[in-house]
Each structure stands twice: as C-alpha cells, then as structure tokens.
Specification:
The protein has helices at 2-11, 13-25, 32-42, 49-60, 68-89, 101-105, 107-127, 131-153, 162-187, 192-219, 222-225, 231-234, 240-248, 251-263, 268-280, 283-301, 309-323; strands spanning 94-95, 98-99. 76% of the residues lie in helices and 1% in strands.
C-alpha cells in the first residue's frame, strides 16, 4: 500500500502543489470569519482526489492549457461544503483528526460557510464558459442534497436493501467524483467516447471509494481514520457490511445485531462482537468484493485511451481506492 501511495504522490507532486495554491487563491471571501472557517475544512489534510482527477482527466484527453487547476477547485469546494453540512447533520466531533467546524464556530456559521463554498464552486464553473460544466455542478448539488436527505430518512432502517444503499452512496459520493472526471474531459474538448469513458471511470471509482470508507468504519482505528470508528452505526447508518450480514445471519444473531443497531450507544465489547459477526457472515468480504468490481470497471473504462503516464496514474488511483487506510 505504501509503495502504491508513494508512487502516486511522487507522480502528481507538482499537480498537488498547484492545486493547493489554486484553492487558496480562488477562495476570495471578504469576511475573515468565512476565510477562517473555510480554511479549517479545506486545509486540514484532505487527499485532493477530486481536483486531481479533473486535472488528470483533462490531461489524458490532451489538454495543454493553464486553467485546469483553477477549474479543479470547483470540486474541492463542493466537497468541503458537503463535509461542513454533513458533520453538523451527523453531530460529528472529529473530521480528519480535528474538531469539526461547528464545534468551534457554531452551527449557523458552519451552514453558511458551506453555502458560500457551494456558491463559490458555481461561480468558478461559470468562468469555464461551458454550460455543460455549470449543469454538472448544479446536478451534483441536487444529487448530494437528496442523497443526504435519503440517508436521513432511512436511519436505523433494519430492512434497508442493498439497492437502496447503492443509490444513496451514488448520489452522496460517486456523482461528485464522476463530475470531476467528466468536467476534465469537457475542458479538454474531448471526444464523446473519451468523455463517456471518464464519466464511467469516475462513477465506479466514486462507488469504490465510498465502499472502502464503509469498510474502514469496521476495520480501522480512530487515530488512523481521523474520526471515531463505529460512527456510522452510532448514527443509525446501515452500510453494506451490516446490510449483507443482517441478511445472512441466523435468527438469534440477527436479533442481537438489531438490538445493537437500535441501541446506538453500544460498548466497545459489543462493537468488537459485531465486527466478528460481520466477518462470520461475510459482510466485510462481500463489501470488498463489490468494491473490487467497481475498481475493475473503472480501470476497464480507461482502455479507450492510449498508454501514457497519466493513464498509469489513473489506474493506480483506482487500485489505491481498495487498499487505503484513511
């Protein structure tokens, strides 16, 4: 894992440097409070996956302009906005190992700075002078909002289906990554075949990343993950490892698992026993299998492109989705 991560980071080092500069230079609030709150979430250790994917997607389609990093900020601002709002909705305490914004500045400031970041993303999208990208940003905002509302509506729902779960994570996570990749193709004036390939790559990559996140809630540690492990279950969020295990469990174990899910305030021993049941009934293994299928589809989509260093990086990013620890 470390070798793959190191290889990716070495290959995109210059791109990440330029993205960091662009994120700072294009924020442009006139209120210091907005800047302080936005920077708290923007510069707290994010992976910059979404802006990087726009840059790489444009490059693999032959883009040689100078505005890709500026336009890439659209998708990090959108991402940061959703994190501010999600942390408040979920009553979270930690994000990337630091106190969440609303615990420092209060709920109203967190909500409004999130709104500012959404608007800032749309303003930069307008600077592309490409109606398709403005449409992508608007559609992403609609999808992510409805995905979050959908998740709230089914909190604690024991009979949540795998199909419904997939639709939630598609809207909440995958469409943003898909949009970044597709927008890179549009900026590069790519062919329709290239645009479709990168859209498919982004969607499947986004699904794989969210599935990996859901695994980490049961396989990582708070200090590594940067947020409390078991948080999803304590918030009543049923993710694929639990959905699958519930479906396969015998009546006794299912009844016990339902009690833990309903209680939410479970002990560490209970949580460890739940993890053992997720192993026993194949919930963790099945989730890895589904994530691996998405990774394979993402990589297959790139086969329309000729071999290149950029293509190699995108392939590596897909593989990294499955083995990351944070």
């Amino acid at each position: 894992m470390n070798d793959l991560k190191s290889r990716i980071l070495h290959a995109v080092e210059d791109d990440l440097t330029q993205i960091e500069i662009a994120l700072s230079d294009n924020l442009n609030p006139y209120l210091e409070q907005v800047s302080q709150t936005a920077r708290h979430i923007l510069f707290s250790g994010g992976k910059r996956l979404r802006p990087l994917l726009l840059v790489l997607s444009a490059r693999i389609c032959g883009y040689r302009g100078t505005y890709d990093t500026t336009f890439s900020t659209i998708f990090e601002y959108l991402h940061a906005a959703t994190l501010l709002h999600d942390d408040l909705v979920d009553d979270a305490t930690l994000r990337r190992g630091k106190p969440v914004a609303h615990s420092k500045w209060g709920n109203p400031i967190a909500v409004l700075v999130g709104d500012f970041l959404f608007a800032r993303a749309l303003s930069i999208a307008a600077e592309t002078k490409l109606p398709e990208i403005i449409g992508i940003v608007a559609a992403i905002t609609e999808d992510m909002s409805q995905g979050e509302i959908h998740q709230l509506m089914v909190k604690g729902k024991i009979d949540l289906s795998e199909t419904e779960y997939h639709e939630i994570i598609r809207r909440k996570t995958a469409v943003l990554i898909q949009g970044a990749c597709r927008s890179g193709a549009l900026i590069a004036q790519a062919t329709k075949t290239q645009e479709k390939a990168l859209s498919t790559y982004g969607l499947d990559l986004g699904m794989a990343f969210q599935l990996a996140d859901d695994l980490l809630d049961y396989t990582s540690e708070t200090g590594v993950l940067g947020k409390a492990v078991g948080a999803d279950l304590r918030e009543g969020k049923l993710t694929l490892p639990v959905i699958y295990a519930l479906d396969k469990a015998d009546s006794s174990d299912r009844a016990w698992m339902e009690t833990i899910i309903a209680a939410r305030e479970f002990s560490e021993d209970d949580f460890q026993e739940l993890i053992e049941k997720l192993h026993h009934y194949g919930g963790l293994a099945y989730t890895r299998q589904v994530a691996s299928q998405h990774v394979a589809r993402a990589k297959e989509a790139l086969q329309v492109f000729d071999p290149s260093a950029t293509k190699d990086i995108l392939l590596d990013v897909a593989d990294y989705a499955m083995i990351r620890k944070t």
